[in-house]
Amino acid sequence: MILSRHKAYTRAQSPFPMTKEAKRPVEHVEIVPAASEHATILANLLELYVHDFSEFLKVKIGADGRFGYESLPLYWSEPGRQAFLVRVDGSLAGLALVKRGSELSGDESAWDMAEFFVLRAYRRHGIGTEIAHEVWRRFPGNWEVRVMQANVSAEHFWAHAISEYVGEVVHPVRVEKNGECWNLFSFESKHSL
Question: Is 146 within 8 Å of 154 (Cβ atoms)?
Answer without folding.
Answer: no
